[in-house]
Amino acid sequence: MSTEAEGTSTGPESARTGSGGTRTRLSVARTLDRCTVLGPGSRAVIWVQGCPLRCPGCVAAETLPFEGGTSRTVHELAEWLCGLDAIEGVTFSGG
Ligand code: SF4
After folding, report:
1. Are the C-beta atoms of residues 49 and 69 closer than 8 Å to each other?
2. 55 CA distance to ligand 1 middle (Å)
3. Does any domain span residue 49?
């Protein structure tokens, strides 16, 4: 049994399955397969949706609201990352 309906996540959270496993989910604003300007080397990027902070000059203002985004499991994101060629790292950015 899951405690979370699919696609309704509004932030990082976990849902326990009936078998006792944990499925951690992220609300994802967008992803990018390859980037060379948001960290060292060639990287994938995951922008999460929702941030309670209001830093002056935030460059990701569209990701601040907790509404929106796509609920993705860590497993789904790991599978996507493992399928990418020649990336050296992953950058997580805000919300
Ligand atoms: S997304 Fe990043 S820069 Fe923008 S308010 Fe949140 S922590 Fe600050």
Report:
1. yes
2. 5
3. yes
**C-alpha to C-alpha distance for 74 and 25, rounded to whole angstroms:** 6
Q: Which two tokens stand for residue 39?
A: 């960290």
- List the alpha helices (DSSP H) in the chain: 74-82
Q: How far is the CA of 46 from the centre of ligand 1 (A)?
A: 14
Mutational test site, ligand 1, from 30, 46, 49, 58, max ligand atoms within 8 Å of CB: 58
Find out whether the beta carbon of 60 lies less than 6 Å from any atom of ligand 1. yes
Q: What's residue 22's pLDDT? A: 54
User: Is the CB of 55 inside a 6 Å radius of any atom of ligand 1?
Assistant: yes
Assigned domain for 44 exists: yes
24 in any annotated domain? yes
Q: How many domains does the chain have?
A: 1
Note the pLDDT of residue 9.
42
pLDDT reported for residue 19: 41
Let me know if residue 4 belongs to a domain.
Answer: no
Q: Indicate the pLDDT class of residue 95, thresholds 50, 70 and 90.
A: confident
Q: What is the pTM of this model?
A: 0.76
Domain that holds residue 59: 13-93
